[in-house]
Amino acid sequence: MTEIPQTDDAPSPFPFPDGPMSSPPPEFERRRAVCPLSEVTLPTGDRAMLALKHADIQQIMSDDRRFTRDFSDPEAPRLFHNLLMLEDPTIMLNMHGEDHLRLRRILASAFTPRRAAAWRPQVQESIDLLLDEMEKAGRPANLMSFAYKLPTKLTCKMLAIPEEDGEQLLKWVSAWLSFAMPREELDKAAADFNDYVVALARRRRDEPGDALIDHLISARDRDDRLSEDELVSTIRTLIIGGNETIANSISRMTFTLLRQRNLWETLQADRSLIPTAIEELLRHNPPGGGATGLMRLATEDVELVSGAGTVKAGQAVFTPLVAAAYDPEAFPDPETVRFDRPRQPSTMQFGAGRHYCVGVHLARTELELMLTALLDRFPNLRLAEAPEDLPWSEGGYGVTMSELPVTW
Ligand code: HEM
Questions:
Q1: In angstroms, what is the span from residue 246 Cα to ligand 1's centroid?
Q2: pLDDT over threshold 90, residue 289
Q3: Which CATH class is domain 12-407?
Q4: Whose CA is nearest to atom 39 of ligand 1?
Q5: Quick one: which of 179, 163, 101, 184 has its CA closest to 356?
Q6: Which of 80, 81, 132, 308 is deepest in the core (most CB within 10 A)?
Q7: How far is the CA of 140 from the centre of ligand 1 (A)?
Q8: Separation between Cα atoms, residue 2 and residue 32, nearest integer Å
Q9: Would you say the CB of residue 238 lies under 6 angstroms from ligand 1?
Q10: What secondary structure does DSSP assign to 351-398, as a single string?
Q11: Measured in Å, how far apart are the chain's first and last C-alpha atoms?
Q12: Where are the domains of the chain?
């Protein structure tokens, strides 16, 4: 077994501070060079291993047998106290084994590339309406607020939710991702959100239509694959999974393109680069920042492929996606945005293994159409404030831009 050099006697507190403008924590680079697998102290005081090499992160996320998402043991390490997203054992990200696979199969059948392609006209229509609204409201505009409105509109369409409830959905999602909200508020948000989704599912069952929610309901009713609780948790998973991720990807991608104008001009000149540009922009500036990723628990001792060391049975290991994305062995000169990077290795921005993002095809469609529309309609789009003056959020799982003022 490889000896793990430790930088400190006591494990350092994690998460580490991000770099400027929510760039990856400089500590990742330092540690990757000297101790790519090390122990850290989580905000709860529990300990976990931290893996920082792309190859190791890919191995851990892909090995669903020896690394599980089953944190149901009360003694298992916790990343944060009071973070609903990690507490709720019924949302798909926190499930494992057969239950997870059954739910995934049902959901995956609703999220195929063909279905994502069928949504294109609806996605385009929503984008056109939002950008009309942005243009009409005049300059400068806060692009962040439009970035949130797109996935919310689509979530409402998919789940047959009245659009006027979209704002409330976003409040629940933000409670779900907050670790700074008082416990009573979190509990109330969780209960209200659940009640809302239960009523939605009931209403829709009485008056079915042709939306994604109806597909989920009929999958349950036909051969009893989804229990009532599973249906409700699947709907909640989709609301949580599909909003912040898209809003933050749109804002961070646009931020990068406007800061490095040559990239914006390159895409203006050659739209065929957009699909590869999206993958590279997500790698370079992924939604969420330095602490985004989920912990896994080792079910047996596992030696990591890079030779960084061994994760012992019972240990939790954290795999920050941005650490994988900035590993120079996988992506030489990782700070540079290059639209011609080879497609392998995977950037893993949509995960790996059994929990690989179910919404990936829809996500790519949303990002591609949004970016194309911004380039078409606002060729002179630029930041309305100095990039270093823009505010970033605190207190939530994942760092987001609070505002993205743009003009044209
Ligand atoms: C750019 C946008 C998105 C990014 C970067 C993203 C990223 C991810 C990642 C990294 C995971 C796996 C986490 C892990 O295993 O550690 C994941 C899972 C998931 N995502 Fe996405 N996602 C995006 C958009 C969406 C959308 C639009 C939806 C649905 C409408 C969605 C639904 C889900 C669901 C349901 C899971 C859980 C899958 C499972 O546990 O089996 N995501 N996503």
A1: 10
A2: no
A3: mainly alpha
A4: 355
A5: 101
A6: 308
A7: 32
A8: 15
A9: yes
A10: --GGG--TTHHHHHHHHHHHHHHHHHH-TT-EESS-GGG--B--SBSS
A11: 58
A12: 12-407
